[in-house]
Structures are given as structure tokens and as C-alpha cells.
């Protein structure tokens, strides 16, 4: 009996020491799912965040691009992953809109938000050889026949589409004409090849082509001018229209991920997003640094959900 | 010139040279193992680039890719299991040479044409990169659609087993590509409510299944005979083969450079179209598919030239052409070498350094490739049933790793059975892979174009380049038919 007890004690001790060794998250590689293609803005920001988290936490943070379906596939995969803290995801603006558009039931409520790390405004671009020299030219053309002006930027119902729809509406046009694509790069390819007339994308996504003189920026969709592009007016300044739609990016875990794991990544993310390396990277690519912790991010997401719902209904895109 | 000397200084540091040597060797081994792909090799190296300076970091990616893609030819020659979608274009031909006892010649020809193709690609890249990038920017969804359609037609027209059977294989691949969500509107198709299926059937496990597993199930392939085909010097007879087919060599390299520069379409399509070209313009087209090196020369050269020029849109405009360059663009950004025209104006020594790394990596193909073949030859003295076991294990690991899910293994097994069945029916399997790779591209560009032209088919003929490509496509299908018809009418 004594021997049996001793054996049991040894067993319990071994088990506990095993458990103690397992307590320190992360103890193996973590996957970060990005619902957009490699090379785009979401991919770039997720990769820098992954790299810095990896440096702080000492385990590989591998970025996996799960594209398609206008990011529905990637977002779904994040929400359905094992909530063990070893699969996280880069959630993006589109999540605020999916359910309004009836694309999927998925909403911010299906995720455990960890932190917001970026929010910024897009702009309206045309090809360098386009007849539209200023935003007012484009406004006039849209007012005349909105069906003749094809806009592009990303998927149907994405923030860029929404911005385009509100722009067309504000300009007094009829139905907006939107050509969906898998992201900014293919849309810009369509723009420079003359297949579409205008594109709504983020500045960093258009930067290389802008510097090469292939594109012209007509107006920024923010309420203020972009600090890196002080010459580009806001929509308000250029044509007296009130259109300002912002995109956001953040890190989230599947629902039911243990709180201690979430708070550990949250704390590390707070550290990482205030690091000089992160700020330098974001500045060099002109992404707006905007950090919110888990609780604030959740509130931000709830606000976005309501705002985008209102905007989508106004643009006639929401499913009743 | 000063910038060029600076560039030489940048890459002749010990760190860079060691990085190139190690990543080349790594790429060679990963690429040569059936089931493990070039993309995987490159992705695995990314974490290491964090600790390197910018130039060695990018050198790592370039060297590894170049080597892995070339090494993908080794299992294609020896086991009829291509390492990449592009080597699937000529796996059948190369393996036929091996069975004839000319495995060494096939391998040597592929290695040397790859190396020469890479060099030609480099020269073109150094001279006209910005110009070529501008041309690539003029391609819209209309042009991409026709290009993809042309590539598919080439596969249907040149694969062994006759046109009807090739078309069956191709359509099977295209049909498999429709599983999952519609690329533009995210409507689920053929998913039956299964989450794994909503992401589609990914082509890496499918390729492993079709070639590796299918081949293992066939079980009649005599690996010992194949190893017998490797007796003799690797580069014996390569010189005379290449000089005999020198036009093919240069045509392949030139064509590869052009098509590689088109983001998204280039790399995978190039070898298929080059192989088809080669057969079309050959004096002895009847020898194709039975172990004839001419097509290998053109496709091999095309492969590496395309690999080089795939970097043009990536570096000049930040538009990556394939998974590998997308990873590389990520590394460039992370290291502060932001892609864009300023890469060539502000820090031109960095641009030259990247170019020089291409030269070194291409030059290393020959000695390292030779070493790999020597090693592989030993491997084939292992009894077949042991070898089959090892290949199966690598296939399973590769399928799992490609999609990070057990579903990858299911896909692999399913396509393995399909390949076995196709083999019995004499249907070629290579076009299935091309269909799967190009399916989404065809579909997406078709839908985008139809949206832009608002449902008007004539939109495909309204832009000059698009109209030209469209007419070429129609001609490819109608001319042989018309010739046959007139012959039949003339005949009594």
C-alpha cells in the first residue's frame, strides 16, 4: 500500500512538473492566418507583427495566406481554428461588413480580439494617361453616366467598394459600377492597362506605381490629408463631398482562446506596436500606427459594425 | 559602373557567400525530394533571413528558389515525379529518355539549358527590366484570359496519348479547380458544406498524388532500369545536343523571359508553351514523347529564364508574380529594400547585387546539380520496395505541409487513385495539373473581363493585344481542323 502511494505520488509529481513545463505559452510555432494575398498591405503588416512577436516570444510566428472569397475563407478559417492560442489571425475591415452583406454570418462576435495595430484611409487613383485630371473631372463624369466609369480596388462589399459607392452617391451618380478583384495589385494592373477608369486603394499599395509615374492620385478619402502625400487634397477640399471611410487591421484569436494566452499576446503586441522598429516600418510604408488593447478593440469593432451597417444601407448594398 | 563595383563588394562578403552556398544546397535537397516543393523550401528559409543583412537575406531566397526549381527536374527524370508544375510539362519525355538508358543525357541537358536560360534571362533583365515591366503593366484581365487559354491549348495539343485524351485530362483538372468558393463573389461550389472543401483542392497535394502516389500504385516502373539509365557521365553528349538544338535553346530562353515578366501567369505556363513550340517547329515532331531531348532543351531554358524575369514586376512595381516572389517581396520590405522604381534609381547597387546573385545561383546549378545526380544514383541501388516506402512518407509529409491539414493527404490519395485509373485508360496526367493551376486564373480573368465589358463577348476583341491573342487561340484550334477537312474533301 505504501509502495502504491509512493508510486502514485511520483506519478502526480511527474504529471505536475509536466504541466508546469507546458504552462509557458508559446511552447511551439504559432500560425498567423492572413485572409489576403501575399504582397498586399494586410500581408505586409501581419508579417512585421509576426516577426516582432517572434522576437519577443521566442517561437516562430508563421504567416499563412489563406486567400479567396473576398477574405471570407481566411476569416472563417481563423474563427474555426483550435482555440489553443497556436492559430491566430489578422482580421481586417471586411469583417465589419460580411453579415450586413449576407456573405456569411461571421462577425466580430465570432472572434476574441487581441489588439488593433493599424487604421488608415484610402484614396482615389486614375492612370497617368487618364482624361480625368482632377477629382472634379471624375465627379462630373460619374454624374453624367456612372455606368461608364468602372471602379476597382478589391472585392465586392469591401471597404474600397463601399468608399466608391458612397463617392458615386455623393457625386450625384446613379448605380456605382464596381469591378471586383482579389486585392489592390490586380486592380492596379487593370487600371494601368486601361481596363477600368478609377481605383480606390490605400496609398502604400499604390506607392511604387505612383513613384513610377504610372498613376495619379486624385483625392484621399480621409478627413485630413495624408502626411506622406501633402499635395493630394481630401475629397472635401477637391470636390466639396463628404466621403470618409477608413479601413482597419488587427490581431484576433478564435473565440474561447484561454484568457491568459490572449493577455500574454496582448501585452506583447502593445510592446511591439510601440517599438521603434514597428513604427519605422509602418512609416516607411505609410501605414497608420493605431494600437488598441483587447477590450478597446472589441468596442471599436462594435462601433465599426454599426457604422458600416449604416453606410452599407445608405449605399443600397446591405441585405435586408 | 561605380555602383556595379559596389554591388560586387556587397555580395562578396563572407556572410553573403555562405548564405548562397547553404541555401543553394538546401534548395537542391528540398527540390529533389519528390513531394517537397520550391515554395516550401523558400518559405522555410524566411525565418532565417530575419537574422541576416538585407543582401544575404535576399540572396538566400533567390539561391534557394533557383536551385529548388532546377532540382525539381531530378525526380521528374528518374521517377516520372515532377517537383514543380513546370517540370510536369516534360516529366513524361524525360522519363522516356531514362527508360531508354539516356537518363544522364536528359538530366545533363536540363541542367545546362536551365543554366544558360538563367543567364540569358539575367542579361535581358539587366538591360530592359524597366521597359519589360512597363509592357507587363499593359496586360489586363482580357489579355490574361487569352494567355491562359493559349497555355491550356498547348497542353492539350502536345501531351502524349492523343488530343481527345489530353482534353479529357485537362478538363478534369479545370473541373477540380472549380471546387471551393467562386473567386469573385465567394459563392461556395461543390463544397457539400465541408469547410476544407470551401478553400478548394490545392494543387500541391494533388500533384504529389497524381505523380508520386500514382506512380507507386502503378508499380510497374522499373527503378533499377532507371538507375541503369544514369550510368555514364552526366554531361556526356550534352554539348552536342545543345549545339544541335541551339535555336530551341535561345527561343526557349527568350520566350521564358517574356512570359515570366507577366505577374501571375508566367512561371507555370512557360515550360508548357515552350515545349509545345518546340514540338511545333521541330523537324522531327514524331519523336516527341518517346524520349527526345529537343523539347527538354527549350522547356528547361524557358523555366529558368522565366524564373529570372518573374522578379521584374516584383522589383519594379511591387507586384509579385507567384508564391515564391511574393515571399521574396515580403523579405525585401522587411529589409528596407522596398520594391519600386527607386530601387533602381536611389540604391542601384542593391539592384545590381540582386542581379549578381542570380548569376551566381545559376552558375552553381551545374556543379551542385552534378553532385545531386551522383548522390541520387547511389540512392537507386536501394531496393525498390524500400525506396517506394520512403517516397510515400515524403509524399504524405509534403501533402500535409502544403495545406497544414490532414485534408491534404486525403486530396493526395484521391488524386493518386485517379492517376492510377487514368494510367490504365492511357490518359496523360500532366494536363490535369496544368488545368488545376490555371483554372482559377482562367475563371477569374474571364469573369472580371465579362464584368468590365458588361457581358459583351466582343470585349475580348476590342483591345489590340487581346484581339491578337484571341485570334491566335482560334487559329491554334481551327487551322489543324481546317487542314484535315480540306485533305478529306480533296481525297476521293
Can you describe this structure in just a few lines?
Chain A: Residues 1-23 form the signal peptide. The complex is a heterodimer of chains A (320) and B (492). With 320 residues, chain A is of the alpha/beta class.
Your description of this structure?
The complex is a heterodimer of chains A (320) and B (492). With 320 residues, chain A is an alpha/beta fold. Chain A has 12 helices and 10 strands. In chain A, strands 1, 2, 3, 4, 5, 6, 7, 8, 9 and 10 form a 10-stranded mixed beta sheet that branches. In chain A, helix 2 links the parallel strand 1 and strand 2. In chain A, helix 2 packs across helix 10. About 3% of the residues of chain A have low confidence. Chain B has one domain. A two-stranded antiparallel sheet of chain B has the order 1-2. Chain B starts with a helix and ends with a helix. The model of chain B has no long low-confidence stretch (mean pLDDT 81).
Topology:
The complex is a heterodimer of chains A (320) and B (492).
Chain A lengths: L1 H22 L6 E5 L6 H17 L3 E5 L6 H9 L6 E6 L5 H4 L9 E17 L7 H10 L5 E3 L6 H12 L6 E3 L4 H9 L5 E5 H9 L3 E6 L14 H5 L6 E9 L4 H15 L2 H9 L4 E4 L1 H21 L6
Parallel strand pairs in A: 1-2, 1-3, 5-6, 5-7
Antiparallel strand pairs in A: 3-9, 4-7, 4-8, 4-9, 4-10
Helix pairs in contact in A: 2-10
Chain B lengths: L1 H10 L2 H19 L5 H12 L4 H18 L1 H7 L11 H9 L3 H35 L3 H18 L4 H15 L2 E2 L6 E2 L5 H4 L4 H16 L4 H6 L9 H7 L1 H15 L5 H16 L11 H17 L1 H7 L5 H12 L7 H4 L2 H32 L4 H20 L3 H19 L4 H23 L11 H27 L2
Antiparallel strand pairs in B: 1-2
Helix pairs in contact in B: 1-20, 2-3, 2-4, 2-20, 3-4, 3-18, 4-18, 4-20, 5-6, 5-7, 6-7, 7-13, 7-14, 7-16, 7-17, 7-20, 8-9, 8-15, 8-23, 8-24, 9-23, 11-21, 11-22, 11-23, 14-15, 14-16, 15-16, 21-22
Organism (chain B): Nitratireductor indicus C115
Keywords (chain B): Membrane, Transmembrane, Transmembrane helix
Pfam families (chain B): TctA (PF01970)
Amino acid at each position: 500500500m505504501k509502495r502504491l502511494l509512493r508510486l502514485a505520488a511520483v506519478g502526480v509529481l511527474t504529471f505536475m512538473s509536466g504541466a508546469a513545463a507546458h504552462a509557458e505559452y508559446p511552447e511551439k510555432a504559432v500560425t498567423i492566418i492572413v485572409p489576403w494575398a501575399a504582397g498586399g498591405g494586410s500581408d505586409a503588416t501581419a508579417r512585421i507583427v509576426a516577426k516582432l512577436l517572434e522576437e519577443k516570444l521566442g517561437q516562430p510566428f508563421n504567416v499563412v495566406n489563406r486567400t479567396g472569397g473576398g477574405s471570407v475563407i481566411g476569416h472563417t478559417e481563423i474563427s474555426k481554428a483550435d482555440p489553443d492560442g497556436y492559430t491566430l489571425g489578422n482580421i481586417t475591415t471586411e469583417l465589419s461588413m460580411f453579415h450586413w452583406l449576407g456573405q456569411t454570418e461571421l462577425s466580430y462576435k465570432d472572434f476574441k480580439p487581441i489588439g488593433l495595430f493599424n487604421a488608415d484611409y484610402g484614396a482615389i487613383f486614375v492612370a497617368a494617361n487618364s482624361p480625368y485630371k482632377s477629382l472634379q473631372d471624375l465627379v462630373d463624369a460619374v454624374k453624367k453616366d456612372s455606368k461608364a466609369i468602372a471602379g476597382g480596388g478589391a472585392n465586392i462589399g469591401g471597404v474600397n467598394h463601399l468608399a466608391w459607392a458612397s463617392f458615386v452617391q455623393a457625386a450625384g451618380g446613379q448605380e456605382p459600377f464596381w469591378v471586383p478583384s482579389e486585392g489592390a495589385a490586380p486592380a492596379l494592373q487593370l487600371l494601368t492597362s486601361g481596363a477600368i477608369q478609377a481605383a480606390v486603394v490605400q496609398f502604400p499599395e499604390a506607392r511604387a506605381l505612383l513613384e513610377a509615374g504610372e498613376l495619379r492620385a486624385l483625392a484621399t478619402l480621409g478627413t485630413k490629408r495624408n502626411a506622406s502625400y501633402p499635395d493630394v487634397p481630401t475629397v472635401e477640399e477637391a470636390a466639396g463631398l463628404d466621403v470618409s471611410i477608413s479601413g482597419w487591421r488587427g490581431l484576433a484569436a478564435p473565440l474561447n482562446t484561454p484568457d491568459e494566452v490572449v493577455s500574454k499576446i496582448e501585452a506583447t503586441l502593445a510592446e511591439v506596436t510601440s517599438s521603434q522598429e514597428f513604427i519605422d516600418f509602418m512609416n516607411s510604408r505609410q501605414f497608420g500606427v493605431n494600437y488598441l488593447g483587447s477590450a478597446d478593440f472589441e468596442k471599436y469593432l462594435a462601433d465599426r459594425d454599426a457604422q458600416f451597417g449604416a453606410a452599407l444601407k445608405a449605399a443600397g448594398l446591405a441585405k435586408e | 559602373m561605380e555602383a556595379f563595383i559596389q554591388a560586387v563588394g556587397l555580395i562578396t562578403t563572407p556572410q553573403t557567400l555562405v548564405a548562397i552556398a547553404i541555401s543553394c544546397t538546401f534548395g537542391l535537397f528540398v527540390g529533389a525530394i519528390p513531394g517537397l516543393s520550391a515554395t516550401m523550401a523558400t518559405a522555410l528559409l524566411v525565418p532565417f533571413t530575419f537574422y541576416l543583412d538585407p543582401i544575404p537575406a535576399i540572396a538566400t531566397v533567390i539561391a534557394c528558389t533557383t536551385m529548388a526549381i532546377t532540382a525539381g527536374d531530378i525526380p521528374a527524370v528518374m521517377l516520372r515525379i515532377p517537383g514543380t508544375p513546370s517540370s510536369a510539362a516534360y516529366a513524361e519525355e524525360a522519363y522516356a529518355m531514362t527508360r531508354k538508358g539516356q537518363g544522364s543525357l536528359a538530366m545533363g541537358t536540363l541542367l545546362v539549358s536551365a543554366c544558360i536560360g538563367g543567364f540569358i534571362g539575367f542579361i535581358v533583365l539587366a538591360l530592359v527590366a524597366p521597359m519589360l515591366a512597363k509592357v507587363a503593366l499593359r496586360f489586363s484581365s482580357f489579355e490574361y484570359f487569352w494567355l491562359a487559354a493559349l497555355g491550356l491549348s498547348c497542353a492539350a495539343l502536345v501531351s502524349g496519348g492523343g488530343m481527345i485524351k489530353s482534353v479529357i485530362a485537362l478538363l478534369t483538372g479545370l473541373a477540380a479547380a472549380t471546387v471551393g468558393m467562386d473567386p469573385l463573389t465567394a459563392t461556395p461550389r461543390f463544397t457539400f458544406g465541408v469547410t476544407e472543401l470551401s478553400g478548394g483542392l490545392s494543387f500541391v497535394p494533388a500533384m504529389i498524388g497524381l505523380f508520386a502516389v500514382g506512380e507507386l500504385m502503378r508499380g510497374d516502373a522499373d527503378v533499377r532500369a532507371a538507375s541503369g539509365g544514369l550510368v555514364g557521365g552526366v554531361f556526356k553528349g550534352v554539348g552536342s545536343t545543345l549545339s544541335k538544338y541551339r535555336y530551341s535553346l535561345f527561343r526557349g530562353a527568350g520566350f521564358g523571359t517574356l512570359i515570366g515578366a507577366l505577374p501571375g501567369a508566367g512561371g507555370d505556363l512557360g515550360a508548357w508553351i515552350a515545349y509545345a513550340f518546340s514540338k511545333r517547329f521541330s523537324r522531327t515532331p514524331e519523336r516527341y514523347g518517346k524520349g527526345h531531348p529537343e523539347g527538354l532543351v527549350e522547356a528547361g531554358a524557358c523555366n529558368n529564364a522565366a524564373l529570372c524575369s518573374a522578379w521584374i514586376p516584383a522589383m519594379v512595381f511591387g507586384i509579385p508574380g507567384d508564391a515564391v516572389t511574393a515571399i521574396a517581396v515580403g523579405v525585401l520590405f522587411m529589409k528596407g529594400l522596398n520594391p519600386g522604381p527607386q530601387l533602381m534609381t536611389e540604391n542601384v547597387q542593391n539592384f545590381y547585387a540582386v542581379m549578381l546573385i542570380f548569376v551566381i545561383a545559376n552558375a552553381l546549378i551545374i556543379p551542385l546539380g552534378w553532385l545531386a545526380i551522383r548522390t541520387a544514383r547511389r540512392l537507386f541501388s536501394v531496393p525498390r520496395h524500400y525506396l517506394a516506402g520512403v517516397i510515400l512518407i515524403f509524399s504524405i509529409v509534403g501533402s500535409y505541409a502544403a495545406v497544414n491539414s490532414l485534408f491534404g493527404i486525403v486530396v493526395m490519395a484521391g488524386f493518386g487513385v485517379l492517376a492510377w485509373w487514368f494510367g490504365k485508360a492511357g490518359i496523360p496526367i500532366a494536363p490535369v495539373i496544368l488545368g488545376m493551376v490555371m483554372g482559377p486564373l482562367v475563371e477569374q480573368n474571364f469573369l472580371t473581363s465579362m464584368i468590365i465589358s458588361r457581358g459583351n463577348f466582343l470585349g475580348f476583341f476590342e483591345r489590340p493585344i487581346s484581339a491578337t491573342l484571341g485570334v491566335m487561340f482560334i487559329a491554334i484550334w481551327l487551322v489543324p481542323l481546317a487542314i484535315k477537312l480540306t485533305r478529306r474533301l480533296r481525297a476521293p
